[in-house]
Amino acid sequence: MKFKAEIDVMPLEALLDPQGKAVSNSMKNIGLPEIDGVRIGRHVRLFVEASNETEASEKVEQACKKLLANQIMESYTFHIEEA
């Protein structure tokens, strides 16, 4: 079976996010001063071939830990659905 995984990788809350800070600071310049606390990460979509959702989830977890997220600086979440 083929599964689709949607993965969000974000900087850890305890770490400075320079991109997010720059965007937060720019919000008042475009007339949106009520928006702050912006954090910028990335979104990854991938497809995985697996016999069931549990196996697909395990494979996505490995991909996140080994390649997609730097666990020292980033956290990740994902959800899987049948493609």
TrEMBL record:
Does the keyword Membrane belong to this entry? no
UniProt name for this protein: Phosphoribosylformylglycinamidine synthase subunit PurS
| UniProt-listed GO biological process terms | 'de novo' IMP biosynthetic process
Family per record: Belongs to the PurS family.
Write down the EC number: 6.3.5.3
Q: Which gene encodes it?
A: purS
Catalytic activity field: N(2)-formyl-N(1)-(5-phospho-beta-D-ribosyl)glycinamide + L-glutamine + ATP + H2O = 2-formamido-N(1)-(5-O-phospho-beta-D-ribosyl)acetamidine + L-glutamate + ADP + phosphate + H(+)
Fetch the InterPro entries from UniProt. PurS (IPR003850), PurS-like_sf (IPR036604)
Q: Which UniProt keywords apply?
A: ATP-binding, Cytoplasm, Ligase, Nucleotide-binding, Purine biosynthesis
**SUPFAM superfamilies linked:** PurS-like
Role noted for this protein: Part of the phosphoribosylformylglycinamidine synthase complex involved in the purines biosynthetic pathway. Catalyzes the ATP-dependent conversion of formylglycinamide ribonucleotide (FGAR) and glutamine to yield formylglycinamidine ribonucleotide (FGAM) and glutamate. The FGAM synthase complex is composed of three subunits. PurQ produces an ammonia molecule by converting glutamine to glutamate. PurL transfers the ammonia molecule to FGAR to form FGAM in an ATP-dependent manner.
- Superkingdom as given in the UniProt entry: Bacteria
Location relative to the cell: Cytoplasm
Leading EC class: ligase
- Name the PANTHER family for this protein: PHOSPHORIBOSYLFORMYLGLYCINAMIDINE SYNTHASE SUBUNIT PURS (PTHR34696)
Its organism's taxonomic lineage begins at: Bacteria, Pseudomonadati, Bacteroidota, Flavobacteriia, Flavobacteriales
How would you summarize the oligomeric state and partners of this protein? Answer: Part of the FGAM synthase complex composed of 1 PurL, 1 PurQ and 2 PurS subunits.
* Species annotation: Lishizhenia tianjinensis
- What are its GO cellular component terms? cytoplasm
Does the record bear ATP-binding in its keywords? yes
| A single MF term (Gene Ontology) | phosphoribosylformylglycinamidine synthase activity
Pathway membership, UniProt: Purine metabolism; IMP biosynthesis via de novo pathway; 5-amino-1-(5-phospho-D-ribosyl)imidazole from N(2)-formyl-N(1)-(5-phospho-D-ribosyl)glycinamide: step 1/2
